[in-house]
Amino acid sequence: MSDVPPFPLDATQLQALAIKPLDQCACSLKICKGWESVSDDRWPSKQLKLEGTLRREMAQGESELSFQEFHPNGTRYDSPEAPIALNYFPYNRADVYACQQCGCAVLKYTEYGGYYIDQRVRLVDACLVVDAA
Predict the structure, then answer these.
(1) In sequence order, what are the beta bridge partners of 106?
(2) Which of 83, 120, 97 is nearest to 18 (CA)?
């Protein structure tokens, strides 16, 4: 992977990356409709390309990025219907990858628990992308 930091994407750019996946690809990430744990053996690194990032710079005076979530319709973090709100957790810590075979776009972030590190992945649905402040 390159040492060049990923390009920051906005909501419109993320929606453009979320093209409909083609059926002929056996990409295991298409089933990740909500945030799901993905082990290294399920992460098809050879067919994915880093397209950009949703990571945001901290505002002056902030000690860390917000852990606030955005669920105006009562969804939960792992719900497939949850909005993809770029300025909210966990999207503000995610990078965007595209499958080079089928074109699906996925978000990936690392969750750090007390005693574990967990890679989480979510398929991008363009209809769910929101640019909430």
Answers:
(1) 97, 123
(2) 97
pLDDT digits (tens, 9 = 90+) for 78-128: 999 999 999 899 999 999 999 888 888 999 999 887 788 899 999 999 999
Please, which residues have CB within 8 angstroms of residue 80's CB and are 6 or more apart in sequence? 33, 34
| pTM greater than 0.85 (yes/no) | yes
Residues 110 and 117 sit within 8 Å (Cβ to Cβ): yes
The domain segmentation of the chain, as residue ranges, is: 11-56+75-130
**Angle 67-68-72 from CA coordinates, rounded to 5°:** 150
3-state secondary structure 21-79: CCCCCCCHHHHCCCCEECCCCCCCHHHEEEEEECCCCCCCCCCCCCCCCCCCCCCCCCC
